[in-house]
From TrEMBL:
Organism listed in the record: Mycolicibacterium aromaticivorans JS19b1 = JCM 16368
Transmembrane segments: 29-51, 86-104, 181-210, 222-245, 257-278, 298-322, 334-356, 362-381, 393-419, 425-443
Signal peptide residues on this chain, from the entry's feature table: none
Membrane topology: Multi-pass membrane protein
Location, primary (coarse class): membrane
Gene3D superfamilies registered for this protein in UniProt: Clc chloride channel (1.10.3080.10)
Keywords, ordered alphabetically: Chloride, Chloride channel, Ion channel, Ion transport, Membrane, Transmembrane, Transmembrane helix, Transport
Protein name per its UniProtKB record: Chloride channel protein
One Gene Ontology MF term: chloride channel activity
Taxonomic placement: Bacteria, Bacillati, Actinomycetota, Actinomycetes, Mycobacteriales
């Protein structure tokens, strides 16, 4: 006779989940941190390759235009001009159209830049990121940016790893506190991996979810996760800094030069403020316009393509053009009016690409906008003949990256470290401290942030969770079809 089935209590999350939950701090975050880091690194590699191949086909083969690439991506100089100018708006329109259709059809939450939804998951319920969102975000963002839309590759990379942190929280039945750490680690390690900035990624994980606070509980696990993600990504695609070594030969020895960085900090704050206001203004206006969520991003893509015919630097991520802006001869060869308009043009292009509902990151464009701000100030000072100007614009480009986006993202330390890693330029820190400090102090006097889902601090976030605890939110299914 068959033996009767015994009734056994099965713990939620299975034996592995029970083992993780019973583990001490060190063992728990070694296991979870390394796991998230491996997925973050592989996810960053997957999206990088998807974006590279999509861009080569859509812009390169169909559009007949090769965008310049930074040193870490191969350093190709790009096309000297458009072979088929009429094809560029059609490519940006078509890529945005297909991308928007995929998002609307399969995962509407993948619309936009994605980092805000991951931050919101940290604050509300770390289990809410669906598995299919990861896949849809990867495909849709590759189409948007690969066709020339102005967006960054860090948003999709962050959502892939943040989504995995959310899946782990569900599968292993982690506590809400551990789930929030896991999703935060995903955000920071995904961005750090694809930018080749592990220390910056770890600090970003601990700071990006708040405007005026820092989550120390995330920092140490962040070291493990970011180092793992960086190692995986670099082992496959190389460890060269994204922009090479831009201002590594700079040595601080003339304190008078800091006057320039007071000016740069003020101007960077102004453009960071404009970036957030124009971007979310576009989001608001788009919501009121007639048309559905497929047509609006497609029209935005068409407008970006038309703008690129006059200012090609706005196409795609813009990292290659930021690299070119750091070179004296290249920067001087660009007409002055274009150099001065580049920061505003990139803001408009990003707003049209992502603010209308397209899929892509806003971190990367923010860094490029800052690079163009620094280049514009250096170029204007050079042409006027102002004294005390460095011989190369590289220093201004690097510090502009740090000040512009570090201030409006309310993550000045994290962005400063990340850009220093991306450019191999830790020697610029004395100048950066002045510019970033001034830019952040100015932005902090306003209610503006590029990430709407950020909470003010840990106290306000905790109070809101307590207030919302009475309202139960249905939790997603544990598969990729839910």
């Amino acid at each position: 006779m068959p033996r009767p089935r015994q009734n056994r209590d099965v713990e939620p999350g299975g034996p592995l989940g029970a083992f993780i939950r019973r583990s001490g701090y060190l063992r728990k975050w070694l296991i979870l941190g390394i796991s998230i880091g491996v997925i973050a690194g592989l996810g960053a590699v997957t999206f990088y390759l998807a974006l590279d191949y999509t861009g080569q086909f859509l812009l390169g083969y169909v559009g007949g235009y090769q965008i310049p690439k930074p040193v870490g991506d191969g350093g190709q100089p790009g096309s000297p001009g458009f072979v088929r100018p009429w094809a560029i708006p059609l490519v940006t329109f078509g890529g945005a159209l297909v991308s928007a259709w995929i998002v609307a059809r399969f995962a509407p939450e993948a619309e936009g830049h994605g980092t805000d939804s991951a931050i919101e998951a940290v604050h509300t319920d770390p289990r809410t990121i669906r598995g299919r969102t990861i896949v849809v975000k990867t495909i849709a963002s590759a189409l948007t940016i690969g066709s020339g839309g102005s967006g960054g590759r860090e948003g999709p990379a962050a959502q892939i790893s943040a989504g995995f942190g959310s899946l782990m929280t569900r599968w292993l039945n982690l506590s809400d506190d551990d789930g929030r750490i896991a999703v935060s680690l995903g955000i920071g390690s995904g961005i750090g991996a694809i930018f080749g900035a592990p220390l910056g990624g770890a600090v970003l994980a601990a700071s990006i979810v708040y405007r005026e606070d820092f989550d120390y509980k995330v920092l140490v696990p962040g070291f493990i996760t970011s180092a793992t993600a960086f190692s995986v990504f670099g082992s496959i695609l190389g460890f060269e800094p994204l922009f090479g070594y831009v201002a590594s030969d700079f040595r601080f020895h003339q304190p008078a030069i800091l006057i320039w960085f007071v000016v740069l900090g003020i101007v960077a704050a102004a453009f960071g403020y404009l970036y957030a206001r124009i971007f979310y203004g576009t989001v608001s206006v788009t919501a009121k316009l007639p048309g559905n969520k497929v047509i609006k991003p497609a029209v935005g893509g068409l407008l970006v393509g038309l703008l690129a015919l006059a200012i090609p630097q706005v196409l795609a991520s813009g990292y290659g053009w930021a690299q070119k802006a750091s070179d004296t001869s290249t920067l001087l060869s660009i007409p002055l009016w274009i150099v001065l308009l580049l920061p505003l043009a990139k803001i408009i292009a990003t707003s049209l690409s992502i603010g209308t509902g397209g899929s892509g990151g806003i971190f990367g464009p923010g860094v490029v906008i800052g690079a163009f701000v620094g280049a514009a100030i250096w170029r204007l000072g050079h042409d006027i003949g102002l004294p005390g100007l460095p011989a190369s614009p590289g220093l201004f480009v690097v510090v502009g990256m740090m000040a512009c986006f570090g201030s409006v993202a309310h993550a000045p330390l994290a962005v400063m470290i990340m850009v220093a890693e991306m450019t191999g330029s830790f020697s610029v820190i004395p100048c950066a401290l002045v510019a970033v400090g001034i830019a952040y102090l100015l932005i902090s006097r306003t209610p503006v942030s590029i990430y709407k889902a950020q909470r003010l601090n840990r106290d306000s976030a905790g109070a809101q969770r307590v207030a919302d605890s009475a309202h139960e939110v249905p939790r997603p299914r544990d598969d990729f079809t839910g």
